[in-house]
Amino acid sequence: MDTANMTIELSYALDTFYFLVCGALVMWMAAGFAMLESGLVRSKNTAEILTKNVALYSIACVMYLLLGYQVMYGGDGINGVIPSLGALLPGENTTEAVLAGGEGAPYYSGASDFFFQVVFVAATMSIISGAVAERMKLWSFLTFAVFMTAIIYPVQAYWSWGGGFLSAAGYSDFAGSGIVHLCGGVGALIGAIMVGPRKGKYDAEGRPRAIPGANMPLAALGMFALWLGWFGFNGGSQLVLSSVADANAVAKIFVNTNTAAAGGLLAALITARIKWGKADLTMAVNGALAGLVAITAEPLAPSPLAATLIGAVGGIIVVFSVLALDRLRVDDPVGAISVHGTAGIWGVLIVPASNTGASIGPQLLGLAAIIGWTAAASAVVFALVKLGMGLRVTEEEEYEGVDIAECGLEAYPEFVGARGGTAG
User: Is residue 422 domain-resident?
Assistant: First the structure.
């Protein structure tokens, strides 16, 4: 084999390996979501939220394999709106195809692309679990997960990443502030509204009461796990690493991702200090995540300082979004709607400020399409699940804790009281 062909094969192997490693980092975000959410719910609901997280990841993997990938990459479809079904999985690339070179030659394994995409789907579904925590039936939630991962997410992702009408319109969303995070945030909003708030969350006048989580160390650890996974989320979306230009781009994406998170955390922490006179850890944690969501739509074009400011604005936004949702009596125990939904909108809108190839019109069109489709489809699925299975546990089960009602075990059995409940 000549030197040129060896170079092509080496680049193919390196880019495939990089794609797989980034996918593995994104998979680790599943652990981050599980830790974050189990830290922010009460102890009596911990085992159930963990069960949701491990089960939804597996559902996403199976449903995206069976249907979601075919929907998202099905081809031209009808007017770029209604997707057609493609192959079950991408075929293996041959050595001859790789060595052919040119624009159409594959430059990483198709299976590595599938793996990278499937962990994105799981991340979208993980966003929803925290917003409906502590009162939604486990099996009703998992039924919704089937539809979200097989149809709802893939359809709107096809519009952008699958070559649909948003792609043709010029919508720009590098790693998915809108496609992934806003989609999950809207699904979470619809779920929280339809399930209703937790008992005791609001008083007779509608004023919110604080319901502290059981394990702040675990919540903080979950934040750092998500922060780490985000390097794969944004860095992997560059797709390749094997050229000097791509390697430099990946390095800049990592720097911008990191500094946006730091900016978001500090801005949320300072905002909370100004507003309440205290350093609120939950706001700091969500501020970091909001900064990460905000930079995800364009982590390459901004300078590191601009990325810090983009993340900082996300951190400020998330504090006031949480307060606004509470005033509207939308109960979100972990702040997922604000982190992924509200900060996701900001991330999509700010893209044209740093990316000269993007304009505000297509960004607004993308937001309208993602919000409209996800809200309508989620509402229909939640309504059908409510008719068939019910959405909410009973008042007694909610009081005792959904760990016992749904899982038959306690996450912290040493705290079990004489009546069989928990201290949470």
Answer: no
pLDDT tens digits, 384-416: 999 999 999 999 999 999 999 999 998 988 765
Write out the two tokens for 83: 């997707």
Q: How far apart are CA 180 and CA 188, in angstroms?
A: 12
pLDDT tens-place string over residues 7-31: 889 999 999 999 999 999 999 999 9
Question: Does residue 101 have a pLDDT over 80?
Answer: no
pLDDT at 97: 83
Structural domains in the chain (count): 1
Total residues belonging to the chain = 424
> Residue 99 class from Cβ within 10 Å (0-12 exposed, 13-18 middle, 19+ buried)?
middle
Residue 421 domain flag: no
Contact by Cβ (8 Å): 294, 286: no
Q: What is the CATH number of the domain that holds 304?
A: 1.10.3430.10
* Whole-angstrom Cα Rg for the chain: 21
Domain span holding position 247: 3-415
Residue 363 located in a structural domain: yes
Cα three-residue angle 256-258-264, rounded to 5 degrees: 95
Task: Decide: 293 and 314 in contact? Cβ < 8 Å.
Answer: yes
In single-letter form, the type of residue at position 142 comes to L
* Dihedral over Cα of 248, 348, 148, 193: its sign: positive
CB–CB of 276/237 below 8 Å?
A: no
Structure tokens given for 57: 């990841």
Instruction: Kindly tell me the sign of the dihedral angle through the C-alpha atoms of 224, 227, 228, 229.
Output: positive
Dist CA 144 CA 381 (whole Å): 7
Residues 6+ apart with CB under 8 A from 6: none
Inter-CA distances, 40 with 194, 210, 211, 218, Å: 21, 12, 9, 8
